[in-house]
Amino acid sequence: MKKASLILLSLCLLSCLKQNRAFKPVGFDTYNLYDVYTDSHGNQGIVILKEQEDDGAQWVIVLSADETDSSWGLPDKYVYPMERYAKDGFPDTKYPQQYSYAIDLNQRVEAQGLSSYPAFAWCHAKNNGETVHAGSWILPSEEMMFKALNDNYLQINKALSAHNMTPISTTGFYWTCTEDINGYISDSSNDHFKYGYDPAARAIPITYNAMYPIQKTVWEKSNIHHVRAVKIIHYYYPVKHQAE
Question: In angstroms, how far is CA 208 from the centroid of its own chain?
Answer without folding.
Answer: 14
